Amino acid sequence: EPLTEEEEKEKEELKGLGFTDWAKREFQAFCRGIELYGRDAYELIQTEVPTKTVDEVREYASAFWERYTEIEDHERIISKIEAAEAKRSKEDRLASLIRRKVAEVDYPLQQLKIVYANQTKGKSYSEDEDRFLLVEMSKYGLGKESVYEKIKQDINNFPAFRFDWFIKSRTVQEISRRCQTLVSLVDRENGGGDDKDAAPVKAKRA
After folding, report:
1. Is the Cβ–Cβ distance between 177 and 189 less than 8 Å?
2. Domain closes at, from 37, 72, 107
């Protein structure tokens, strides 16, 4: 099937970087890999472009960063990459805060202190449940949806929650939201963040 005029133009732009054997879909996958893993994570970027070797990805990356301004729409491409980098940097900072907080005590599931925001009405998570979620995040990190799926599995297998219907009945999405609330609380405790959406704890539920 012949290429469209736009695809022919994009092909010529890629050739202009010195690479005649990179297709548009491979270029897009390359950019997606940078967004996901970082500019220098060549082995991980290659997993997004399985048709190329790590060395080919590294060579292409070198040419890309030297000459990306020659590509049409490069401002949008770089903007997406920089936004992803900023998000990843923030997640790394918050994950570090969580790990540091959990490491401050010998028995975090019992001793971890959580500084809650103003009290609100309605059923909420217990402090024991919140401690568990913080410990889980310190183990798995932040950001990816798979993290909360793992936490959900661990909740179901945690002996202390055997009869805790509330926490065991939470969906992955609900667990994700609660974890983000806890992250906001820890960030606020360390001088950052916005606590407006940080729901407080109830020590006990009737």
Report:
1. no
2. 72
